[in-house]
């Protein structure tokens, strides 16, 4: 993907009551925009300037370029995995097969993702990814971390930086994490396989 703001597939208030329009305005419109702008400024005139964001995340050394590229990629995947609450459907096809093979049930997957997200110390992300070996795995990544860095395929993420939930949930991270299942677009997640 290019370093640009993704077009959201729902209106600004389309994720309510799980994520408010106010949170979306700040999280998407201000935080993600800042990462996009920072990455453009940091990569101007460098070997990274024309690279796709995924390539930067996979190859850049730790530091400002990686951090901003990671946050652009992470936030883009995050925002594009949602749908309005009344459109949520269960996982199907290969994704459903992998979930049941590797976790036993969707409820087990959700429970393990919640545990990873709620238990992450400080800021970062909980990820469901497809490993290089072809199994689904859940990981915790601090700051701008992404499973792509290890060569895995990121599928679904939970943002536990405070800016993702503080307007709506204050310090109730667990409430935020558990409510996100009400807006997951499983087809969008499946398309990442």
From TrEMBL:
Q: Which residues form the Manganese/iron superoxide dismutase N-terminal domain?
A: 4-81
* Top-tier EC class: oxidoreductase
Q: Which reaction does it catalyse?
A: 2 superoxide + 2 H(+) = H2O2 + O2
The Manganese/iron superoxide dismutase C-terminal domain covers which part of the protein? 91-192
Metal-binding in keyword set: yes
Functional note:
Destroys radicals which are normally produced within the cells and which are toxic to biological systems.
Question: What protein does this entry describe?
Answer: Superoxide dismutase
